Amino acid sequence: MGENIKVVVCGACGRMGQEVVRGLMQADNLQLVGAVDVRCVGMDIGIVLGGEAVGIEVSQDLRASIDKNNPQVMIDFTVPNVAMEHARLALSAGVFPVIGTTGFTMADIDELHQLCERTGLAAVVAPNFAMGAILMMRFAREAVRYFPRVEIIEMHHDAKMDAPSGTALKTAEMLAEEVEQSPGSKGGFIDKLAGVRGGDYHGVRIHSVRLPGLMAHQEVIFGGLGQVLTLRHDSISRESFVPGVLLAVERVTHAKGVIYGLENLL
Ligand code: NAP
């Protein structure tokens, strides 16, 4: 077996960060060496997770953590502007970013492309690390060739800060790439309520639901003559994202440039 890949996790005390830290602690070939967050600063990350101390204190400062712990990969599950700053910092220090934080713009992705080119490193940006969601997007890409009239409903817990979800935006981008004429739904309706038909992205209507009790769910609904095809994915626990994150950590150090979407790593 090769050497362990050393990893620092940003947002380590958040909902996703904690799951990822647990996953890293159980992985054979990966080693958690640093935990960065603005919460629980100075606490041992093992205690934050409700277990025993593991000798890794939560730090507020990614640069200090990189200097001290010498990681090869940085995982980020924080908030968009912070994640972008972390990615810049990581690449400038020779560390490969794996970013799960959503809300990145195409301008952010372009900037990462340039930084990767300049440094010769790679970065993974994946709006959804769940395998089922990747398959849903792949099947949607297939379906849109036969059913170009399509809308997306994405549903998330009410603490999610961005809307629509990164997965919904990525799905709409993929649908638009697949067909020559813009996919989407019929226009010309009278909207009696502002926004009632959802947001239009690449011609695809996206509807965002935010409610307690939900985790991360998406339906891609295709309408045809006398028939409807619905593709649905449900993440019912945050564990669903962890295998994809660990896979990205293993692969990113052998990659070049920006890999936008887990599907491009499979
Ligand atoms: P969360 O529970 O709020 O966790 C984010 C953590 O980052 C919090 O502990 C937060 O602290 C911390 N943070 C904020 N600013 C920071 C900074 N400057 N430096 C270091 N840490 C900082 O959020 P979450 O539910 O884990 O989600 C995090 C991101 O992952 C979101 O963008 C979400 O959409 C995305 N997500 C992606 C996937 C995927 O598969 N790609 C799956 C699930 C979620 P405070 O709360 O004190 O600010």
In brief, what are we looking at here?
The chain folds into 2 domains: 5-125 and 239-265, 3-Layer(aba) Sandwich (Rossmann fold); 131-235, Dihydrodipicolinate Reductase, domain 2 (2-Layer Sandwich). Helices cover 33% and strands 25% of the residues.
Uncertain segments are: none
Distance between the ends: 21 Å
What's the main sheet like?
A: 7 strands, parallel
CATH class of the largest domain: Alpha Beta
Report the portion of residues in β strands.
25-35%
Strand order of the largest sheet: 3-2-1-4-5-6-12
Total number of domains? 2
Strand count = 12
Structural class: alpha/beta
Could you spell the SSE succession in H and E letters?
Answer: EHEHEHEHEHEHEHEEEEHE
Mean pLDDT rating: 95
CATH superfamily of the largest domain: NAD(P)-binding Rossmann-like Domain
Radius of gyration: 19 Å
Q: What count of helical segments does DSSP give?
A: 8
* Global morphology: elongated
Q: What is the second-level CATH architecture of the largest domain?
A: 3-Layer(aba) Sandwich
Catalogue the ligands: NADP nicotinamide-adenine-dinucleotide phosphate
CATH topology of the largest domain: Rossmann fold
- The proportion of residues forming helix, as a percent range, comes to 25-40%
